[in-house]
Write a structure and sequence with these properties.
With 477 residues, the chain is mainly beta. The chain has helices at residues 13-31, 33-36, 328-338, 418-423, 465-470; strands at residues 50-59, 68-76, 82-84, 101-108, 114-120, 133-139, 149-152, 161-168, 173-184, 187-197, 207-210, 217-225, 228-234, 240-245, 254-260, 265-272, 279-286, 289-298, 303-306, 318-327, 345-348, 354-359, 362-367, 378-382, 390-394, 400-405, 408-413, 426-430, 438-442, 449-453, 456-460, 473-476. Strands 3-2-1-20 form a 4-stranded antiparallel beta sheet. Strands 4-5-6-7 form a 4-stranded antiparallel beta sheet, with no helix packed on it.
Length: 477
């Protein structure tokens, strides 16, 4: 198993050293697999309380430039602002099954260790060939993962999509939910099924868990919330719909809210705030691919309010995420092992779905997702004219920077002239529209700020509320 992308180029000594360490680590983990998977009964989890969040996901973009059927990780302190790990490239690269994954699901087991499941899907094939298996990895620390294995959960001659996990204390086993086609009373439709396991090596025969009659996919079950168990699904009408039950018995869940939707939304993911009673409901968008929506609400009431894009920043081009709460130690270990990103994205305050990018050598803001997605990624360098400032170097055109020319912002190669350095340098200030965001004042025209107008970037004096809005940005990932 490879735990990161291998580009196929010759390995340098640092690469070989890191690769060898991973091989040794995986071997050690495989040897300890029995201990990791001894999860048939509840045990005490680590004494440290959860204080952060981890997300697993895969990536896609409209023109498939970011398509990567492997596992990506991100971390967050508030479940809203996310830092992709490993420069938003894979941390686990599947090798077994069809060689590709979708729909990862991350879950802390009763003994405090972790399991990661994923749909098995061919990278270049159709989505729905018959497949009874899912991918499984185990870990004690989220950093070192066991050797990959395939787990059969389905006995149908159909696909097995979007696995998720929950603990069933009555059975003393884990339920593995998945979506598949099943024939009931002569009618074949999508529904949620469950297989039970104690060790993620063998499973029971699957049975129907939830069939709402509309053709449902993509389940997430959270248990024992005020005495209720909540199952969210994507129904046949395209809504992320809530059901609930006092028990965990298959067939016992009843719809209690109509749920929410944005066009082409699927993959409901629930997560509770660690600092309040607020719940968040995430949904994946598939037309176009490469963005999430998020709602805030009360899971007991089933009331959800769509968040404005300026309230959260998801990993770029992420799809079908899973979110788990983690400890500060686990968060720090993940950051130490994989690192964050060496680039930033800049989001508009008043058009928060739009990000600063270059297109045709012009600076502008455009709605994500788009390709080439790297057009929106910037390395914030010390200012070329004053190191106390900042200059924006393009990730996919290294050596080229945003500068102003006749007050319009363009992308141009650094000719190292005094004029270029001055035109390409800006000072970061508190956001003119929101002090928690950022504005950028021109180095050589200090009465002018970087702003958008008609989605084009330029520098202007800021004299009114619209100008303050246009000149305010979020520096994130």
């Amino acid at each position: 198993m490879s735990l990161s992308h291998d580009s196929g180029h010759s390995r340098s000594r640092p690469y070989f050293t890191a690769w060898l360490a991973r091989v040794v680590t995986v071997s050690l983990t495989a040897a300890a697999l029995t201990a990791v998977t001894a999860v048939t009964t509840p045990a005490a989890v680590a004494a440290e309380a959860d204080s952060a969040y981890a997300m697993a996901y895969f990536t896609e973009s409209p023109d498939r430039l970011a398509n990567a059927d492997d596992v990506h990780f991100a971390v967050s302190d508030d479940a809203l602002e996310w830092t992709p790990l490993n420069n938003n490239t894979a941390v686990i690269d599947p090798q077994l099954g069809t060689g590709g994954i979708r729909d990862p699901f991350l879950y802390r087991l009763q003994n405090g260790s972790w399991v990661l499941l994923a749909t098995d899907i061919c990278r270049t094939c159709a989505f729905d060939p018959a497949n009874q298996n899912i991918h499984v990895w185990m870990s004690t620390d989220m950093v070192t993962w066991s050797a990959e294995r395939m787990l059969r959960v389905n006995n149908n001659t159909s696909f097995t999509w979007a696995p998720s996990v929950y603990w069933d204390p009555g059975r003393g086993q884990y339920g593995v939910l998945f979506s598949t086609n099943q024939t009931v009373n002569g009618s074949t439709r999508l529904m949620s099924m469950v297989s039970y396991t104690s060790d993620f090596v063998t499973t029971t025969a699957p049975q129907v868990f939830y069939d709402g009659g509309t053709g449902e996919i993509d389940t997430h079950l959270v248990t024992n919330v005020g005495g209720w168990n909540y199952l969210y699904i994507r129904d046949g009408a395209g809504k992320l719909t809530g059901t609930r039950s006092r028990s965990l018995e298959p067939g016992s869940f009843v719809k209690y809210t109509d749920g929410v939707s944005v066009t082409c939304t699927e993959a409901p993911t629930l997560v509770k705030s660690l600092t309040s009673s607020t719940w968040y409901l995430w949904g994946d968008n598939f037309c176009p691919n490469g963005r999430f929506y998020a709602w805030q609400g009360d899971i007991a009431q089933g009331n959800w309010t769509l968040l404005n894009d300026n309230a959260y920043t998801a990993p770029v081009l992420g799809k079908h995420n899973t979110i788990a709460t983690i400890t500060a130690t686990e968060r720090n270990n993940l950051m130490t092992r994989w690192g964050g990103t060496n680039w930033n994205r800049l989001k508009s305050w008043n058009f928060p779905g739009r990000y600063i990018r270059h297109a045709g050598s012009q600076g502008r803001i455009d709605e994500m997702p788009f390709d080439p997605y790297q057009d929106s990624q910037w390395r914030l360098r010390p200012g070329l004219a004053d190191a106390a400032g900042v200059s924006f170097e393009s990730v996919n055109n290294p050596g080229q920077f945003l500068r102003h020319a006749a007050f319009n912002i363009v992308l141009a190669p650094n000719d190292n002239s005094a004029l270029f350095r001055a035109d390409a340098t800006f000072y970061r200030t508190a956001g003119l529209a929101n002090a928690n965001w950022t504005s950028f004042r021109s180095y050589n025209f200090p009465d002018r700020y970087l702003r958008h107008s008609g989605y084009q970037l330029r520098i202007d004096p800021i004299t009114d509320g619209l100008g303050r809005d246009d000149a305010t940005f979020h520096v994130g990932y």
